[in-house]
Design a protein that fits this description.
Blueprint (H helix, E strand, L loop, with lengths): L10 H13 L2 H6 L4 H24 L1 H11 L5 H4 L7
């Protein structure tokens, strides 16, 4: 957590954020048990979707509002600041 973020997200939401990062460790673990083609067929669409949503929320105000309504409690203050347009 950076100095900017201190106190901007509650403890429960921070635990949820950390658990999401922790469970992302399953990606390389699962990768060891499936073929490269299967892994790529899963990871490429998820990556493209995530990148499109992240860029789209900066250029489509209604998408940004939807993302903030759904995931805003998980986002830190600098991630919610639409004037900075940071990804």
């Amino acid at each position: 957590m950076t100095a900017i973020d201190r106190g901007t997200i509650d403890y429960k939401s921070e635990l949820l954020r950390k658990s999401i990062h922790f469970f992302s460790l399953s990606i390389p673990i699962i990768y060891n048990f499936i073929s490269k083609d299967q892994a790529l067929s899963i990871l490429i669409p998820i990556t493209l979707f995530s990148v499109l949503i992240d860029f789209g929320r900066h250029f489509i105000p209604s998408l940004n509002k939807f993302i903030q309504n759904v995931f805003g409690f998980l986002m830190r203050e600098h991630e919610n600041d639409s004037s900075k347009k940071k990804i």
